[in-house]
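> Could you send the 3-oxoadipate CoA-transferase prediction when you get a chance?

Sure thing. Input:
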Amino acid sequence: MAGLDKRVGSYEEALAGLTDGMTVVAGGFGLCGIPENLIAQIRRMGVKGLTVVSNNCGIDGFGLGVLLEDRQIRKMIASYVGENALFEQQLLSGELEVELTPQGTLAEKLRAGGAGIPAFFTATGFGTPVAEGKEVREFDGRQYIMERAITGDFAIVKGWKADHYGNVIYRHTAQNFNPVVATAGRITVVEVEEIVEPGELDPTQIHTPGIYVDRIIQGTFEKRIEKRTVRS
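Output:
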């Protein structure tokens, strides 16, 4: 796909325009496929009062967890938060506002937001605290709750390969939340392991078309393993 050259030369340029109080949607699952260098740049920028939307909030000292250390996140919308002691501490102290969302519902909120669909109905969460305050409708004899879509001021995404035009391929399970997050940002920034020349990517293998991507940057990654298990 031809188009504009989306490459930027620095992480400062990649996140230019991110300011206090914005909403950031972030790809990744656990520590797999997280945009670790973009997260580090947010920390360096020192922006505060952020609403962050991601499956989880990293771990203590890595991933989105580093933004908790400097009190940069005001509200976290996530589906799983069990690996972060600082997150628990800030939640229980009232420092951090948390909106827990079923994992599939969170994925659909982001997908719907990227597709321009403002809300949808799902049976997940009906009859639980998840449904409190939400519209309920019956379809074919079953009760469903209405969930609002999610979009962000910035979307930060980790890919494997991309071309100059921002067409992105993810590697294996690093697809997780990255494809839906990439569609849900007003400004979508993707960091990748390799940027190739236009025409080198097989068009049938592209997961995120460049039309969704505003900025692309090549980085190096630690790719930390969250839990290493070996035989006893």
